[in-house]
Amino acid sequence: MRILVAAVGAFALAGCAATSPPRAAVSPVGVATAPHPIVAEATPAGGETSPEQEPKNEHASRQMNRVWGWVALSVGADAALLATVTSFMALHQNSVRNDDCVDKVCSPDGIAANGKLGDLIGWNAAAWGVAVVGVGAGAFLLLTNPSDKALGTKVGIGPTASGSGLLLKGSF
User: What is the pTM for the complete model shown?
Assistant: First the structure.
């Protein structure tokens, strides 16, 4: 019966712990004991990381940005290739249209070339837009997130602008 009362009392104390100061608990033999402190890890406000975790998170973020940079650069390069091909196709269709249309009167080949030219121009403009954005975003991400090999400071002896001397290279 004493254990049941102590357990019920502990639950009651736990519910009141937020509003009342901690009380001394009574052990089953009647000896007062100090309350057990609740130990919890404090997390910094705003989800900040500790200094030990910062380099690992920075490295992972930089590597992920480099991956996205290569993806954007690849998409931009593919779009540039598509834009170049559609530009040559449009030039060819324009040539066919100019040869088969005289004084705004076109043969069936000229009419077909005019329709194909209208279709190609939209694809060509979109491909050039994707190429510019993809190459630009990829280059930006790769240049602003250097690889691990590019980070750090290097000291050596080698030729400088004024002859031989001490060479110091670094990036940040």
Answer: 0.53
**Please, are residues 25 and 11 in contact by the beta-carbon 8 Å criterion?**
no
Q: Are 28 and 6 spatial neighbours (Cβ–Cβ below 8 Å)?
A: yes
Q: What is the pLDDT of residues 96-149, one digit of tens each?
A: 888 888 888 888 888 898 889 989 999 999 999 999 999 999 999 999 988 776
- Measured CA to CA, the distance from residue 138 to residue 128 in angstroms comes to 15
User: How many residues does the structure list for the chain?
Assistant: 172
> For residues 73 and 131, is the Cβ–Cβ distance under 8 A?
no
Distance of CA 70 to the CA centre of its chain: 12
Give residue limits of the domains in the chain.
62-145
Q: Which helix (H) or strand (E) holds 154?
A: strand 152-160
